[in-house]
């Protein structure tokens, strides 16, 4: 696998970023990690094939240094909800102007590199009245500042000469037992499709190395096995915890979440990333619960 320079991963010290670094190194690709100076770079700094560049995505000179000479960029750095909703100017500076800085730096410092941009299905807005699955051609209507920033970032990318792949990623399910939220961010009746975290990493990695993906905008969802409804998703998680689903609190119908079912057929054909079914995900959680129970018995 030939790459003219290292793969830059912005936000590379984060959870998904670290897994993407690992995937790239397993393929014997060199990686440049760019993240804020106060991040935890343990397991990255000083490792063979990994270069760490510490800086701020809102600082154009930091970005230019990170981008210089790379063969590809996976742009994961962003301010996510709920933090993104507190200060629109800050979110815009990080998510939109930061993306613009990446594009400018690539134009001058890595003109042949491909950009893989982590966008979001939240950009589609409220799609409950539409016939599923949601296509990438669907209109984009922001329900929050985060989605607004992703829509604006996508527009900057399309206006740029940079070769890019835009991945609109569904809600990510992490295969670790977690405390449920006080209020689930969707209604009980709402169509819901999440995607396994490891499959997101696979989609990002394959987008970097698949020439046929260039120029594409793709939905990254879990696939048919993940296409359920809000109540079922919560009931399955509450069953693992031994809690009745009746105790769950869902978002009110007048304030829907942006979840739905998504058409990811083209993404799957190009990237072959859907490797963990919904049942696989639940089985991982069941195994974790079983281990916890065994530990309690010891």
TrEMBL record:
Q: Which Pfam families match?
A: Epimerase
**Where is each NAD-dependent epimerase/dehydratase domain found?**
7-159
Q: Could you tell me which InterPro entries the record lists for this protein?
A: Epimerase_deHydtase, Lipid_A_modif_metabolic_enz, NAD(P)-bd_dom_sf
Q: What domain of life is recorded for the organism? A: Bacteria
**Which PANTHER family does this entry report, sorted A to Z?**
BIFUNCTIONAL POLYMYXIN RESISTANCE PROTEIN ARNA
User: What is the designated name of this protein?
Assistant: NAD-dependent epimerase/dehydratase domain-containing protein
Q: What organism is listed for this UniProt entry? A: Candidatus Entotheonella gemina
């Amino acid at each position: 696998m030939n790459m003219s320079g290292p793969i830059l991963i912005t936000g590379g010290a984060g959870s998904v970023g670290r897994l993407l670094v690992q995937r790239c190194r397993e393929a014997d690709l060199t990686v440049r990690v760019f993240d804020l100076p106060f991040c935890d770079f343990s397991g990255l700094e000083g490792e063979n094939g990994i270069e760490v560049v510490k800086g701020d995505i809102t600082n154009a000179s930091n970005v230019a240094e990170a981008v210089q000479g790379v063969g590809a960029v996976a742009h994961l750095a962003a301010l996510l909800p709920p933090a993104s909703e507190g200060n629109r100017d800050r979110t815009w500076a990080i998510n939109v102007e930061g993306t613009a800085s990446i594009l400018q730096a690539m134009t001058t410092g890595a003109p042949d590199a491909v950009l893989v941009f982590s966008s979001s299905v939240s950009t589609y807005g409220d799609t409950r009245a539409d016939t599923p699955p949601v296509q990438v051609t669907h209109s984009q209507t922001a329900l929050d500042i985060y989605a607004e920033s992703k829509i604006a970032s996508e527009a900057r990318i399309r206006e740029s000469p940079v070769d890019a792949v835009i991945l609109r990623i569904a809600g990510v399910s992490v295969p670790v037992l977690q405390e449920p939220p006080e209020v689930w961010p969707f209604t009980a009746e709402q169509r819901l499709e999440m995607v396994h975290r490891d499959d997101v990493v696979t989609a990002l990695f394959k987008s970097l190395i698949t020439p046929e993906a260039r120029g594409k905008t793709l939905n990254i969802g879990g696939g048919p096995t993940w296409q359920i409804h809000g109540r079922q998703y919560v009931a399955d998680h509450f069953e693992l915890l031994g809690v009745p689903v009746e105790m769950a609190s869902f978002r009110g119908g007048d304030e829907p979440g942006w979840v739905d079912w998504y058409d990811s057929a083209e993404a799957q054909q190009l990237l072959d990333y859907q490797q963990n079914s919904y049942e696989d995900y639940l089985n991982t959680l069941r195994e974790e619960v079983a281990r916890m129970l065994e530990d309690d018995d010891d």
